[in-house]
Amino acid sequence: MSKHNNQSQSSRSYTKSQKKKRNERIILSILIPLFTIILIGAVYLAKLFATVENEIEASFAEIERQEAVEKVNPIDEPVSILFLGVDNNEDRQLGSTRADSIIYATLNPTTHEMNMVSIPRDTFVPIINKGTTLRYDRINSAYAVGEESAMVQTVEEWLDVPIHYYATFNFAAFLDIIDELGGIEINVPIAIDEMNSDDQMGAITLEPGYQTLTGEEALALARTRKIDNDVKRGERQQLIIEAIIRKALKAGSITKYTGIAETVGSNMKTNMRMRDMTAIAQTGLNDSFSISTHIFEWSSFTERGMDLVKIQPDSFEAIQSKLKSSLNRTQEISSSAKLDDASAASTNSKKK
């Protein structure tokens, strides 16, 4: 058996053995931005609404498209959102920024279903910007080429699905959110000796065990990768997001929502207006949607000195079909309802 086949078998084995665990964590990885949207869209207090509305308007940024995507009303039509997470800011000035996390989600207000898939950032795909295929590369490199515009075009073309909205979050923003919440409780899985947000080496040290972390400590735990690999790093980020959600949903955190909303608004880019977020909130997304997560089967390979990810064709086609179906469900239900109405009318007519 070749080295590549061994790698493929090992990768699939790892994926299957971790599937349940990863499903739970992928759900949580999407819930923090969705929870934020619901929080922002809901009108708890007039003051909160006014504060958030100003922040959201400031975070609005349209993207360049070669062809306009069809307009939809999130209240009664399926929509799709591309969530992007980046780990860079003006203070870090890392230069070329790439997307650390890429999640595509569909929301169907008629069936009350959410479908989502997490796209491995090293997936080898054609990078597209301004309608032109530039090269084959890691999918996260599209952000360095043309930020959200290139990411949206690249994902749309690769998955062959529309992207109605995008929302980009800077992971460093969670530092301020965690501090607004008064810290988070988390079972730290490993010991770390890491730099802080000012890149001072050895400024943050943590031992394994259940404890309360500040924003600085949580960010250090999320960023560290030198002790293992990006897969484990991603798992730690999911643990942190889970802890944020648990703390944010506690009753005592409600009074802190204004500060959280201001932090999110100033650290987010999106092409959603306040009315779009409110429409999404009005679907009842926060408690009545069923959530289906999809995991790509993949294998690893090396090209041009890069460690890359190849998505298995059968897995790609199956997940792509589910995503497309979730966006067309309203039309199918509408057609079915018309047939039922016609059948009922015919039956009533015969009875007369």
Describe the structure.
- The chain is an alpha+beta fold and 352 residues long.
- The protein has two domains: 1-171 and 269-329, Nucleotidyltransferase, domain 5 (2-Layer Sandwich); 173-266, Aminopeptidase (3-Layer(aba) Sandwich), CATH 3.40.630.
- It has helices at 3-17, 19-41, 46-59, 142-159, 173-180, 215-223, 230-248, 257-266, 274-281, 285-288, 313-351; strands at 79-86, 99-108, 113-118, 124-129, 132-138, 165-170, 184-188, 192-194, 204-206, 209-213, 268-270, 290-294, 298-303, 306-311.
- Helix 5 runs antiparallel to helix 8 (257-266).
- The N and C termini lie far apart (74 Å).
- 38% of the residues are buried.
- Mean pLDDT is 75; it is low at 13-31, 42-46 and 331-339.
- The chain crosses the membrane at residues 26-46.
- This is Transcriptional attenuator, LytR family.
Write the layout of secondary structure elements.
Layout: H1 3-17, H2 19-41, H3 46-59, E1 79-86, E2 99-108, E3 113-118, E4 124-129, E5 132-138, H4 142-159, E6 165-170, H5 173-180, E7 184-188, E8 192-194, E9 204-206, E10 209-213, H6 215-223, H7 230-248, H8 257-266, E11 268-270, H9 274-281, H10 285-288, E12 290-294, E13 298-303, E14 306-311, H11 313-351
Parallel strand pairs: 1-6, 3-12
Antiparallel strand pairs: 1-2, 2-3, 4-5, 6-11, 7-10, 8-9, 13-14
Domain Cell envelope-related transcriptional attenuator: 98-248
Biased composition (Low complexity): 334-346
Family: Belongs to the LytR/CpsA/Psr (LCP) family.
